[in-house]
Amino acid sequence: MVDEATKRTLSAIPLLKTKAGPRDKDLWVPRLKEEYQSLIKYVENNKQNDNDWFRLESNKDGTRWFGKCWYIHELLKYEFDIEFDIPVTYPTTAPEIAIPELDGKTAKMYRGGKICLSDHFKPLWARNVPKFGIAHAMALGLGPWLAVEVPDLLSKGLIKHKECGDAAAGSN
């Protein structure tokens, strides 16, 4: 079910050990440290493989995340704001990544711009608690979603590159 490139990507993302969420005060700090280490490694790997496609940062408590992601299609870069909160039942429950500016433009999205990951990603996440973290959500959730949805949205004319007249939908 998973192709070789995905297996390689996943094997290079460090797995997490601490089963803790924001409610687990004493354990959340070590979990958050593992999250950052895993994300840093994933971003480093992406840069080495010329596959840099997102930036993330969090609030002081590591409970609210935000940043940018981008997708290159026909040599044009389409950039989007992303955001998500860490669920109170994390890591048992995966974060729901949102791209607010695409809200209502695709059926594969919930209210508020939350991308739909229920069929494929959520069962995989559930089998890998607590080993999966935010880097895994990006690699197995947002990345594949962008690869399918952005070209589809472009083909339907629902988003345009900013140089083509829609400043909110793309970037250089």
TrEMBL record:
GO terms for molecular function: UFM1 conjugating enzyme activity. SUPFAM superfamilies: UBC-like. CDD domains: UBCc_UFC1. GO terms for biological process: protein K69-linked ufmylation. GO terms for cellular component: cytoplasm. The keyword Transcription does not apply. The active site is at C116 (glycyl thioester intermediate). InterPro entries: UBQ-conjugating_enzyme/RWD, Ufc1. Keywords: Ubl conjugation pathway. PANTHER family: UBIQUITIN-FOLD MODIFIER-CONJUGATING ENZYME 1. E2-like enzyme which forms an intermediate with UFM1 via a thioester linkage. Belongs to the ubiquitin-conjugating enzyme family. UFC1 subfamily. This is Ubiquitin-fold modifier-conjugating enzyme 1.
